[in-house]
Design goal:
globular; mainly alpha
């Protein structure tokens, strides 16, 4: 009981995640006959996971590519395709976010890379600034659904499932969610007359931009093609991504400066350092959850309400959406996976499918205050307040929820590609 109260108390007070996980675990350790050395072993075991090496590498690759001008190449190609469509530049933003998501694995990183270029461009083309910021922040949510995805890597480690299968499972849902967001963008643009300065499709211009961007556009195919082709593992792919980014940025495009490389390294180090602290305490926390039979007690409580897998997933999704407004994505995955996974397995739900649903519910948290990381990034770029952008982002949140329901009722969307291996 005291274990649960300490955890909930820290959570409500907004204490840093690693402290929230560590305090109740330390209390249990001090009041049990378990030697204190167990804490050191657990902290080390939590970070001694080979698959976690992929996260800082993918973040570093995305940061290098952003500073190498690869983002601009991608945007130019997408922009030449759209032509006269209503909301053309806004849909370019979603498309570019989808493409950059296949490089970075980060939601806020995708918003920063794409939004920095396209939010001002949309404003110049006559789009309201709050709409532009809402589109960029919504498109950025695809950064954690399309592979490679940092939350998927963490979930795969904690749930002991194949990260390659999780990446495969995220492809169709990512394309589905991107298509739904583009459709929503088109409807809103047509309703409000957002069209910018329409130009007819120019095949010569398209081919020219395609040729100029050939090395940039090849990036996700090099990385993901190697994983799905069985050439290298996700961790090896993350290293290949860094090498390829350096090759393009330093040798081919010659746009990476020493200061830009230093900034990219600093960004990756910050992500890696925070993750190491959280993962160590998470394993420590998970061991005491198991000792206190908390997953089993939660499973028993929820099963007393219903044993129907669909209804149970709807209940879990609702809980995750609420928690996502207050908790950072990786923290949500780290804390809830050991609690909910036994229940999910007991109901016969595929852990890979559940992992995709967990990531999609986390997408919504990127767009909802008070945490809403994507909103803060978009507001920083646009100079608007959270209140201004939050109103504009509501239709996109409704779209993501609709996509979540489709995935929940039709698990084949997530499981089709992994089943074909």
């Amino acid at each position: 009981m005291i274990f649960a109260l300490l955890f909930l108390g820290c959570l409500v007070l907004g204490v840093p995640v690693f402290v929230t996980l560590g305090i109740p675990s330390l209390y249990e350790l001090l009041t049990s006959p378990i030697p204190l050395s167990a804490m050191a072993h657990s902290l080390f075991d939590g970070v001694d996971k080979f698959a976690l090496l992929a996260i800082p590498n993918f973040v570093l690759a995305g940061a290098i590519m952003s500073r190498a001008g690869i983002t601009g190449d991608i945007i130019n190609v997408m922009r030449s395709v759209v032509g006269k469509a209503y909301g053309g530049l806004a849909m370019v933003t979603i498309l570019s976010c989808m493409f950059f998501a296949a490089i970075s694995g980060s939601g806020p990183g995708t918003v920063a890379a794409i939004g920095t270029l396209l939010i001002p461009a949309m404003k110049e083309d006559g789009y309201p600034k709050d709409f532009a910021a809402a589109v960029a922040s919504s498109g950025g949510t695809l950064g954690i659904l399309l592979p490679p995805s940092n939350p998927m890597i963490v979930y795969g480690v904690l749930a002991s499932v194949s990260i390659g299968d999780l990446f495969l499972a995220g492809l169709l849902p990512g394309i589905l969610m991107g298509s739904l967001l583009m459709f929503t963008t088109w409807i809103l643009a047509r309703k409000n007359g957002y069209r910018g300065h329409p130009k007819p499709f120019d095949m010569r211009g398209f081919l020219h931009s395609l040729w100029r961007a050939k090395f940039s556009l090849a990036t996700p195919f090099v990385v993901l093609g190697g994983i799905y082709g069985g050439i290298f593992t996700p961790v090896e792919a993350s290293v290949i991504a860094v090498i390829y980014a350096l090759l393009v940025g330093v040798i081919i495009k010659r746009t990476i400066t020493p200061s830009g490389l230093w900034q990219a390294l600093s960004e990756a180090s910050t992500v890696c350092g925070g993750l190491i602290v959280i993962m160590g305490t998470a394993v420590f926390f998970g061991e005491f959850l198991t000792l206190n039979l908390i997953p089993q007690k939660i499973a028993t409580s929820l099963l007393s309400v219903t044993s129907d897998p669909i209804i149970m997933l709807l209940i879990i999704a609702a809980i995750l959406i609420v928690l996502g407004t207050f908790m950072e994505t990786l923290s949500t995955v780290i804390i809830l996976t050991p609690i909910l996974l036994p229940l999910v397995k007991q109901l016969g739900i595929d852990p890979i499918h559940f992992g995709i649903l967990l990531v999609v519910t986390s997408e919504i948290g990127f767009l909802t205050p008070p945490l809403g990381v994507n909103l803060f990034v978009a507001c920083g770029i646009s100079g608007l307040t959270i209140e201004q952008v939050s109103r504009r982002v509501l239709p996109f949140i409704a779209t993501i929820i609709a996509g979540l329901l489709l995935l929940l009722f039709f698990p084949q969307i997530s499981l089709l590609l992994p089943s074909l291996k």
